[in-house]
Amino acid sequence: MSLKKPLLSEGDLSRLIEMAWEDRTPFEAILKNFHVDEPSLMRIMQENLKPSSYRLWRKRVKEKSVKHLKLRSSEIKRAYCPTQYKISR
């Protein structure tokens, strides 16, 4: 069952698309942060990407078991690579 289409700011939409492209970000994290389920995310991606980019994204998602928490190894505890975000500390 799809949730109703959320109203996203331009910044939120950009972050949502970025998270969808990230291999290690599970759909459940996107649902928690943006209240967008997988079917709604597919629709958003299709509306905002070029057709060839959407097909490439769908192919990647189907091949990545880490996009679904239930299929993910229990040894993976992080959502992203430690070197992914270059935050000065």
TrEMBL record:
Q: Which Pfam families match?
A: DUF2805
The domain of life is Bacteria
Note the InterPro entries from the entry: CHP03643
NCBIfam families attached here?
Answer: TIGR03643 family protein (TIGR03643)
| This protein's name | TIGR03643 family protein
